[in-house]
Structure prediction request, 225 residues.
Amino acid sequence: AQSVTQPDIHITVSEGASLELRCNYSYGATPYLFWYVQSPGQGLQLLLKYFSGDTLVQGIKGFEAEFKRSQSSFNLRKPSVHWSDAAEYFCAVGDRADKLIFGTGTRLQVFP
Amino acid sequence: NAGVTQTPKFQVLKTGQSMTLQCAQDMNHNSMYWYRQDPGMGLRLIYYSASEGTTDKGEVPNGYNVSRLNKREFSLRLESAAPSQTSVYFCASIPGGTLYEQYFGPGTRLTVT
Prediction:
């Protein structure tokens, strides 16, 4: 069965520190992969996506993610976190971009 | 463009009451979706509409009905609300086909007492 796992429910980092949010998936073929961010009280906003090609993808707000087929992972990274990055982050996978399975989310807290 | 809009933003219902959540998009998108978001469970697909005039069940359709009124609007109806339907509901849309991201509305927070 298709599934997405975000192992970290809650992560706390200091402002300026680096960040890595983990995402692992179980899928039969190469999936379409997404990271979304949700600020409090808001809808979801796309950070970045991977469909094919270069396995390191750049997104908005200075985020990047790397697709590792051998590890079935699509981890999200940012070299230096800003206080405004505090939000909930969702990884999503699908075999078509219109049918997605979402992970349970990772809540990021940023301390000054 | 307003993007994807949802009404109402908040709603409190008593068990057994009915209501309709409204969603509209002004991006001329073909496909529209309804999700529910519950703590610790991410987003789960309730229903979707691949194009005007078609609807299909998602992962958690029980207790809900939908109507794709036209290309712009996709409504979600709770005929007899239950406390288990307390959730945040999101509508989303995409232009159609593959290789597109989903655009989300701001959500409706529903509480059923």
About this structure: The mean pLDDT of chain A is 92. The first strand of chain A starts at residue 3 and ends at 5.
